[in-house]
Design brief:
Elements: E1 12-21, E2 24-34, E3 38-43, H1 50-57, E4 65-70, E5 73-74, E6 82-85, H2 99-104, H3 108-111, H4 119-131, H5 147-160, E7 165-169, H6 177-192, E8 196-200, E9 213-218, E10 220-225, H7 227-230, H8 233-240
Parallel strand pairs: 3-8, 3-9, 6-7, 7-8
Antiparallel strand pairs: 1-2, 1-4, 4-5, 9-10
Length: 250
């Protein structure tokens, strides 16, 4: 049994995590503790291992060394309490599913495959759709939506899971400003509820100010903490090499 309740989220501890792709080292000896109640942005250049880190933490790819624990158990063994939204490029948008079908997938773990969804589950899914402003599209095919609308639907699916840990991989790619605002608003609300919210991002512009903490990565952990701590010239040079422009709030 874990030593925390559903309303008391424990930290996630990543210890000595290393991942190889054949002969290439994708991640090297990552050590970080992620506390609940913060919106965390995972940043780094292309090929830095950002998506790899998320997938390794969730047990979706094999690791060479290390472990990821949540409370007193491996994070990967508690997937029923984790919501994961992959990059849009990894999703088959031609699949003949409606918006409602996609959101209800967030209730499958609680209901079980081939079981009828309960009235409470349907209410939870409807509330999630309402929260992201997509209720009027519930009967629309998911492939017929814009990129921003699709991302909001998958956020609704994650909300319908009633998870305690949320992973979002590049959720702002190809979305409009309205959707970006909706996503950040809900991410912040989840963090305020004591959830763990990790977001892979590549934008070093003004949107970076929405994150409570930043995890800067380039195959190894460059730094982790507040924006002032992480966004230093030394760290940015280590991560990106040479000069890089980024937004810095006063």
């Amino acid at each position: 049994m874990t030593n925390f309740t559903m309303t008391e989220t424990a930290p996630i501890a990543v210890n000595h995590l290393s991942v190889n792709y054949r002969t290439t080292q994708a991640l090297r000896n990552i050590n970080v503790t992620i506390e609940p109640g913060s919106l965390i942005g995972i940043f780094g250049p292309n090929g830095a291992g950002k998506s790899t880190l998320v997938q390794a933490m969730l047990g979706l790819i094999p690791v060479v060394t290390g472990q990821v624990s949540w409370g007193d158990q491996p994070l990967a063994s508690q997937r029923e309490r984790v919501a994961y939204v992959p990059q849009r490029s990894q999703i088959d948008w031609s699949f003949p599913a409606t918006v409602w079908d996609v959101v209800m997938m967030g209730r499958v773990r609680q209901t079980g495959w081939f079981h009828r969804f309960s009235v409470p589950s349907r209410r939870i899914a409807a509330a999630a759709l309402e929260r992201v402003g997509m209720s009027e599209f519930r009967d629309r095919r998911i492939g017929a939506l814009s990129g921003g609308q699709q991302q909001r639907v998958f956020l609704a699916r994650a909300l319908a899971q009633r998870a305690d840990v949320f992973f979002f991989d590049e959720p702002f790619v190809g979305v409009d400003q309205k959707t970006e605002a909706v996503l950040f608003q809900i991410f912040s609300e989840l963090a305020a509820e004591g959830k763990i919210v990790l977001v892979v991002n590549h934008d070093l512009g003004e949107s970076i100010t929405h994150f409570d903490q930043l995890l800067l990565l380039n195959r190894e952990l460059i730094d982790f903490g507040s924006r002032d701590r992480v966004l230093t010239p030394t760290n940015m040079t280590r991560a990106y090499g040479g000069h890089v422009q980024f937004f810095s709030a006063a």
